[in-house]
Amino acid sequence: MARIAGVNIPTQKRVEIGLTYIYGIGPTRAKQIIGKLGISAEKRVNQLSDDEVLRIRELIDRDYTVEGDLRRDVSIHIKRLMDLGCYRGLRHRKNLPVRGQRTHTNARTRKGKAKPIAGKKK
Amino acid sequence: MTRSVWKGPFVDGYLLKKSEKQRGSGRNEVIKIWSRRSTILPQFVGQTFGVHNGQKFIPVLVNENMIGHKFGEFSPTRTFYGHAADKKAKRK
Question: Which residues lie closer than 8 Å to B89 by C-beta, 6 or more apart?
């Protein structure tokens, strides 16, 4: 069991994949990390030596913002937009799509589950 | 796609002149502009612009955080009054 960047305990998957369980690390960064440390992509997380785990941990701490810090950064950015009174901020406030998508139909991810309109029939 | 850096930020030229002129003079009053597409530059900070939304000029006091955004972002063009009323109207 390997604990990297706080709470994340990726399993017996390949290192490349296991690392993507960390918020802020996707396939690209995972590849970068194992590239920099010269760890074979074939290796599973449970085959990593303690030293390798340590080096991964250090590298992530040093070079990437991840997990809580990243989440905080993102919410600060969103909050900045909201306080600014710009169009993107307004869309965030209203929980509508921010990047100009249509809202006539769809947009359910932002709007949540469809609410029926009372008395629409007849 | 982001704009190429070598081009610099896009601003309609006459805004620079207008802003400059006001700096020199009394330093209040809203500057009316139609150019919603222009980027807000650092030298506009502290001035108030009336940004046209198609109908009126919306006063926008520029602060540092707004640098890099466009003027149009601060002047909404649509009004939404909500749907509440159409419930009874459609019943019959």
Answer: none
